[in-house]
Every structure is written in C-alpha cells, then in structure tokens.
Amino acid sequence: MDAFGIDIGGSGIKGAPVDLEKGCFAAERLRIPTPEASTPDAVARVCCELLDNFRVDPSVPVGVAFPAPIHPGRPIGYMANLDKSWIGVDITAKLSEACHRPVRVVNDADAAGLAEARYGAARGSKGLVIAVTLGTGIGTALVMDGKLIPNSELGHIAMGKNGEDAEKLAADSARQREDLSWKKWGKRLTKYLRLLEFYLSPEAFVIGGGVSKKHEKYFPYIEVDTPVYPAKLLNDAGIVGAASFAAERR
C-alpha cells in the first residue's frame, strides 16, 4: 500500500489503505463505531486496531482526518463532536505515541478538500480551489496548486444584514429549518459564493456534503463566474485526503 488513511467522526472511525496514484482505496475500508466515551485513549485504541487489522507496516505513511482545527505541535483548542477531554491534547503526539509510528493529522474538511482537488471534481485545476461542505454548518478547504492551506473557517464570514455567519443562513441545515425551496437556497448560496469570489478569486468551487448528491436540484440557481463542481469522492474523501496529506509529509 502507498499510504493509510483514517477518518475520525462522531459516530464512526474508518480506515483503509490508499492507492495514491489513483486516489482510491486499495482494499475495502473498515468502519469501527466511535467509542461512546470518545476520549483520546479510547480513540487512539481504535486507530491502532485499524492499523493492526490491515497489518500496516511502520514504514507506510499514516494520515488521520480529525474534526477540529489542527496546528502541529500545539494542543487542540476546540472540540465539537468528540469528548471534551481532547481539548489541550497534542493529537499528533498522542496518536504517534499510541500507534508506535509517525502519524500526520489534518482537519477533516481540509482532508476532503485536498482529495477533491487532487483526485476528484477539481483534479487538474491550477490556482486556488475552494471546497465547500454544506451540512449542519459550512466547512471549507483551500487548496492552492495542489497544496493545502489549512484551517480555513470561511463558513463564518458575515453574510446577513445583522452580521450573521454565512453558515446560519446558507448551510443545508438552514434550508431544512426554514423549508427553503431549492431556488431560494440556490440564491443564498450564490450570495455566499460571490463573497468568496470577491475576497479570494478562486479558479474553482467544489461543493460537498450529503446534499451534493442532489446538486442538480440547486446548481441551476447558483450564479457565479467561477466554475462550480459537485464533489466526487463523497464519503471516501476524508480517508483519501488524509493518506495523501501524510505521504507528502513523510
């Protein structure tokens, strides 16, 4: 195997070997439920179990997608979907020690965006690609000429008349909460993407999240100058992106 990727989520921890040339799994992924008490020790044990299950040689790069901003050498300062005991932990050091090998950790939205830019919807795009994940909130990833610019939080750009975050108005949760038509929601996405265009002038947008499977319902109402593509790797993106991230930093 070229590299191994792990995607840590609130309900499941998934892992698979990755073919970095093709950007796909080299074997069927394994999913283990996230421990009810998702403490650092409990999550680390699951990561070790995944590596043991696939008999990953210590020489193989291992990348982990994690649901928090990641700053190498610094402790986690914020945690939403896992046990709060992660706050103050240096996750890279924790997982590397537990797994007895170097482990590279990347934010989960960044991992997905990196995978889409290198292997998915925006493969071959030069310049800046912005991946936008629409769900409960809005996650973003910036990839410049194939290189990740980590920890962007562009879902929090002020968009409303009273300074509300973009994600409060344009996330998929807002569409459902307000029972917006696809057309009306598409217009809100237009406003949000135009802000990103104005500030960053990207070469392409990639729209991910579960609602990207229904892109034909709202893409016709998005009116921006930048090409907009639906995500291709979907649930595989976190694992593939994490593995790719680790391989380039070995």
Cα end-to-end separation: 15 Å
Helix content: 25-40%
Mass-distribution shape:
globular
Please work out how many helical segments DSSP would assign.
8
Q: Structural class from helices and strands?
A: alpha/beta
Order of helices and strands: EEEEHEHEHEEEHHHEHEH
How large is the radius of gyration? 18 Å
Number of strands: 11
Report the major sheet: 6 strands, mixed
Query: What amount of the residues lies in strands?
Result: 15-25%
Mean pLDDT: 94
The poorly predicted ranges are none
Structure description:
There is one protein chain. With 250 residues, the protein is of the alpha/beta class. Helix content is 32%, strand content 22%. The longest helix has 19 residues, at 182-200. It is globular. It starts with a strand and ends with a helix.
Reconstruct the topology from this structure.
Blueprint: E1 3-8, E2 12-19, E3 24-25, E4 30-33, H1 40-53, E5 62-66, H2 91-99, E6 103-107, H3 108-119, E7 128-134, E8 138-144, E9 147-149, H4 166-170, H5 172-177, H6 182-200, E10 204-208, H7 215-218, E11 228-230, H8 237-248
Parallel strand pairs: 1-5, 5-6, 7-10, 10-11
Antiparallel strand pairs: 1-2, 2-3, 2-4, 7-8, 8-9
Helix pairs in contact: 1-2, 3-8
